[in-house]
Structures are given as structure tokens and as C-alpha cells.
Amino acid sequence: MLSLTTSQKKIAIGSFLGWSLDGYDIVLMLLVIPSISQLFFPSKDPVFSILATFASYTVTLIMRPLGSVIFGIYGDKFGRKKSMIITILGFSVATFAVGLLPTYAVVGVFAPILLIMVRLIQGIFAGGEWGSGAVLTIESIPKQKRGLLSGFLQSGFSFGFLLAAISFQIITIAFPGDMFGEIGWRILFFTGIIPGFVALFVRISMDESPLWIKKNKESGLERTPLRSIVFGIHRKEFLLCAAIMTGLVYMYHGSISILPTYLEQFGNFDKRQIALIMIYATASSWVGMILTGWLSQKIGRKKSMLVFVSASILVSIPLASAILENAYGLVVYVVMFAFVISTASGPIPAYFSERFPTQIRNSAAGFSYNAGLLFGSWSPLIALSLMSYVPKQMIPVALGINIMIGAIIVIIPTLLSRETKDIDL
């Protein structure tokens, strides 16, 4: 990072902050689901309420492919920077708006409808966020720095998780008990506008991608990038990338994202314990993604990912069991769990950007990444359903098997993919 120019640092930080806001918003929703499920989906069956609230969280993720198409095409035609300014502004306002929503007790059935509508809109803006930021960063830095900067950018998601876990810890202390259900959760969503506006300020002052500017001057931009990606010569690369991302998303959301509910619903941990555990988990994931990105510059994108994904198969059940049992050395188990299972995506910004040409890179990388959310996003719901209907002693096994499914989904397309570490953009 120190060897980068001022312009390159602004681009890297601007992209990192946007991805951090994404992680911040997602983990806020996950942390408050057990507390607000009855506010929007009241039911005598608490599992149903939690599942329904999880579904409202999931719709944000499955709307992202649409957002990636809209803002990916916009970024390829009009510039990565312009796309990033629009997405961060829309995303920040949508996060803030969640805190303004009325509950079921106030407006009845309109409460869950409004929640889902806001999350749908938010998903569209979030879908455009990753592609533009990843591509602009990778296009603007030297080849030998791509791996490390890829891990840094991808780790923004876990950094956002970390900030949210710290905020959650502070708010649960400031608004204990019923006060959290009345006002505390709203304040959490209001705070989301702060990192959003910081990112907006940085993005306004950063430069456009030099590769995109060159292509634009040469009139070499693709008129119909989506057709070329889905039906043209780049179809194979798109399908392989989407499959890899499906597995990575499945693993991440089936481990880190579901962890707060796993601890509260099945392990009888209280809110403060959960917030502290999530701080350790997300800090570990943050550092781990930077490491896997750096490692990919040394041994290759494929090998770096396969090492961590394969290790996940071995450790998921033992570590899930140790965490749920609140075993001695709990912090060590949480750190290992997050470090091994949630960090294989560190090389992805570089890996996906390197697989497509400049004229369609924003659309192709963004759509490939977000297409993985269509199926991978259902992992928490699948895991929660499995864990709710097995004997208590089998709950960690159910969680571990769900993680293994994601790992297998990653391994197959990664083995079928080409290595890209040494190519020129």
C-alpha cells in the first residue's frame, strides 16, 4: 500500500469503504434478526418469525444480480467512478431508511411489506457496488500488487462486519433489554449513513480507471456487454466464476452470517457475548482475506482458494461443535472457524477482473460475482432449517455439512478454471 500513488490509494480506499458499508449493513440485519423478528413478523412460533426475517434479509442478496447488470453496464459505458458514486449514495440512504420503518404493531401487514421493499431497493444498489469498485481498483494498480490489493478490497466486507459488531456491542449496552427492541436497533441502522458519506467524499475526489479511459477514447467499448457475457465467447468464464462465487457465498453466509443466530437460538448466548464473539470472528475474517489475497500473488489465485476451502471441509464440524458447547478456549475456536472458512474469497476481485477484457470487465466481473448470490444466499435459511429439525447433539453437524456443501461447490469450478495471476490487463 505504501508504494502506491496518492491517486491509487484513493481508489483502493474508496472501494474498500463501499464494500465495508455493505458488510456493515448485512451484519446489522443478522445481529438484530433475533430481536426484531417479532416486530415485523409476529408469530407464536419464534422459528417462523426468524425464518421470515431471514427471508427479508435474503431478498437483498438475490436482487444484487439485477443491480450488477444495471450498474455494470453503466460502468462499462460511462465510467467506473460515476457508477460507484451512484451506488454508494443509494445504498447509504436505503440503510438509513430501515431504521425509520414502522413495526407490525403500528401499521399491520404493511410493516413487513415496507421492510421487504426497502431491502429490495437496497439490493439493487448493493449489486452495483462490488463490480465497479473491484474493477476500478485492479485496473489502476501494478500487476504485482493485484493479489494484496484484492485481499484488502475483499476484506472490506469483513471490516464492515467488525464495525457493525462493535456498534452492536455499544448499542446493546446503551439500550439494554426491551429498550433495544424499541429504539436501539433503529439507531444501529441510522449509523450506516456515516461510512457511506465518508466513502462518497473519497469517491468524488478519486480518478477514473486509466484502462477504461483508453478504451473509451479508442471507441472500443462493447455496445451489448450482457449478450457477450451470457451468450457470447465469455459465457464459459462467466459460468465458472458464477459457480465459484455460489460456493464462496454459500460458505460465508452459512458460517459467519448465521453465527449470531446459531449462538442465540441454539447456544443460549446473550447479546453481549454474541457481539464480542462476532468482533473476534469478523476481525479474523478481515485479516484472513488480506492474507489469502497476498498468498494468491505468491502461489496463484486457484491454489490460494483451494487450500482454504479444502481445510474448511476438515474443520467445520469440530469447530462448530466447540463453539456451540462454549468450550474452554472459545475465542481460539471462533478465530480459527472464521479464519479458515470465510476467507477464501480474498483473491476474487483480482481473479474475476483478470478473466474478462476491459470493455466488459465491469459488467462481467460484477454479474459473475452477484450471480453467485442467487443460490449461495439461501445458505443461512437452509442451515437454520436443518438445525431446527435435528436432535440437539446433531446441530453442529448440520451446520458443518452445510458448509461442506459450499466448499464442494467452490472446488469443482476452481479446478476447471485457468490461472490468471501473471496475465496483463
Summed up, what is this model?
The protein has 425 residues and is an all-alpha fold. It is built from 21 helices and no strands.
Structure overview:
With 425 residues, the chain is mainly α. The protein has 21 helices and no strands. The chain has helices at residues 6-40, 46-62, 64-78, 80-98, 104-107, 110-140, 146-174, 178-190, 193-205, 210-217, 225-230, 235-257, 259-266, 271-299, 301-324, 330-341, 348-353, 358-371, 373-376, 379-388, 395-416. The longest helix is centred in the N-terminal third of the chain and has 35 residues, at 6-40.
Task: Walk me through the topology.
Elements: H1 6-40, H2 46-62, H3 64-78, H4 80-98, H5 104-107, H6 110-140, H7 146-174, H8 178-190, H9 193-205, H10 210-217, H11 225-230, H12 235-257, H13 259-266, H14 271-299, H15 301-324, H16 330-341, H17 348-353, H18 358-371, H19 373-376, H20 379-388, H21 395-416
Helix pairs in contact: 1-2, 1-4, 1-6, 1-7, 1-8, 1-9, 1-13, 2-6, 2-20, 3-4, 3-6, 3-18, 4-6, 4-9, 6-7, 6-18, 7-8, 7-14, 12-18, 12-20, 12-21, 13-14, 14-15, 14-16, 15-16, 15-21, 20-21
Which descriptors would you attach to this protein?
globular, 21 helices, mainly alpha, single chain, 425 residues, 0% strand
What's the SSE pattern? HHHHHHHHHHHHHHHHHHHHH
Content of β-strand:
under 5%
Radius of gyration (CA) equals 20 Å
Distance between the termini: 20 Å
Helix content: over 70%
In round numbers, the mean pLDDT is 86
